[in-house]
Amino acid sequence: MTLRNGWRRGLILLRQSFANGAEIFSHVLWPALMVGAVVALRGREFGAFSLGALAVPSILGMNAAFGMISLSQQLTADREDGTLLRARATPHGMPAYLIGTLLLVGGGLLADLVIFLVPAALLVPGLVTGGWPAVIGLLALAMVATLPLGIVLGAAFGSARGQSLLTLPILGVVAISGIFYPLAALPGWLQAVAQVFPFYWLGLGMRAALLPDAAVVVEIGDSGRHLETLGVLGAWAVAGLLLAPPVLRRMARRESGSLVAARRDRALQRVG
Amino acid sequence: MTTTVIDVDGIRMRYGATEVLHDVTFQVGAGETVALLGPNGAGKTTTIEILEGFRRRTAGRVAVLGTDPFLGGDDWRARVGIVLQSWRDHAKWRVRELLAHLAGYYPRPWPVDPLLAAVGLTDQAGQKIRTLSGGQRRRLDVAIGVVGRPDVLFLDEPTAGFDPVARREFHDLVAGLETTVLLTTHDLDEAARLADRIVILDQGRVVASGSPDRLAQSIVGADEVRWRVGDARFTRSTPDSTAFVRDLFATHGAALADLEVRRASLEATYLTLVRKAEVTR
């Protein structure tokens, strides 16, 4: 029953997230800008390769990791408007809430990636076509590695204000993660920092899957480092999966009607 | 009182150094509607949140349907309905969609369409929840609160911010519920209209409890009787106005005029109590 309720909840939420022009626009805008960017870059050369072709898998990897941010924001919004408390007041409500929200964020993410990837793959030459199974596998790993982290971040940075503070360092890490230019071109200490976080490894994995083998010369050590990719992403996945359930339980346990009311009053004060 | 649904025994609640509940004790029996009445800051919301299982008390014993609410599992949750002051969740959902979805979490829910009709939202069934008025939204919250046929329903300040018409419609809706109800309110008329019994909280203590009539009698203790004999006017306070008036007739017979009996009112009771509590504080 919980699975069915969570599944239904996810489908309703997903449908709502594509229900009107404004929602669809917000789904299409970012991928469309990215398609524009890679198309503009396809003529520029980096070594023997088109910069556009290098950017397509990198952007794919980056966006896969952005599910973490949208989940964390969704959680914050649901906490502020009482959705989380409603889930807590309903029998078996929390697991169904979690399943539904993961479906919403995961499904929205996949849709955004498809909206980006299909035109990009058609318009940008130089991608290999045999890499799709690896891309799908990597996307699955990306979600397992990043979505639980999104829950932890959403619980830790509770307010909408906290969330906007959080976005800055994440964008900073993305900027040094070899998405827009190769990591090998950065100073050594920045390379080290970038390799701690999942963004770099997702980009690397996507490049390994979608670019010709010869392209590894742009990577550190001239290698796709498949095992390291799996290892680092797997470690983030384990850490997230271990942390997320107790953090979420703790966050839900602290919710009450007067807290939701107090947040509403603060929000109204900000507006008024 | 048949079976006790809510049993609160000596609960205390402390936030840091501030004690907001001191030794609150009361019971609610099956089928009763009880109002927790008190001025703002009396501890009503804290009390009801403890009973809803959202807050852990500092000390004392609480049982709702025989279970400690803070430890209540999903089976317990399924028997408890909750209506908060400030739900504004699921704003993008449509009315019927949300009610039908939430009904799916309960073992034997009410059918959705009759329930929508009962709360007067049939015409709004396809509307997005954020487009509802305050009164409509609260009626939807009540529908969600009872969709699982709960054995007990908690309503926290259910009519705060309502206009008189919405308030009246809401009272009719609550009066028609066939379940045990505990509601908080700072509105005396609301408590008197809805509740079989009133528990008055002030400064984190129960200062009185009983039926609206009994409360009025026991606290103020006296009705006011006014009459005229010839040109002389009289006013007297008496605990038993009926017997007093009988004596008046026996004494004055037809000379008795302009007889008026004012029952001890709940409002007077309430004000007396709150004033008393403020003096002793």
Automatic annotation (TrEMBL), chain A:
Bilayer topology: Multi-pass membrane protein
Domain (ABC-2 type transporter transmembrane): residue spans on this chain: 7-210
Keyword check for Transmembrane helix: yes
The keyword Transmembrane helix belongs to this UniProt entry's keyword annotation: yes
Keywords on record: Antibiotic resistance, Membrane, Transmembrane, Transmembrane helix
Protein location: Membrane
Stretches that traverse the bilayer: 21-41, 47-69, 96-122, 134-158, 165-186, 230-248
Pfam family, one: ABC2_membrane
Cross-referenced PANTHER family: NODULATION PROTEIN J
Protein name, UniProt field: Transport permease protein
Organism: Asanoa siamensis
Automatic annotation (TrEMBL), chain B:
Molecular functions (GO terms): ATP binding
Membrane topology value: Peripheral membrane protein
One family name in Pfam for this protein: ABC_tran
Chief location category: membrane
Gene3D superfamilies with a match to the protein in the record: P-loop containing nucleotide triphosphate hydrolases
UniProt keyword terms in alphabetical order: Antibiotic resistance, ATP-binding, Nucleotide-binding, Transport
Domain ABC transporter intervals: 6-228
Matches recorded under InterPro entries: AAA+_ATPase (IPR003593), ABC_transporter-like_ATP-bd (IPR003439), ABC_transporter-like_CS (IPR017871), ABC_transporter_ATP-binding (IPR050763), P-loop_NTPase (IPR027417)
SMART domains in the cross-refs: AAA (SM00382)
Protein name in the entry: Multidrug ABC transporter ATP-binding protein
Originating species: Asanoa siamensis
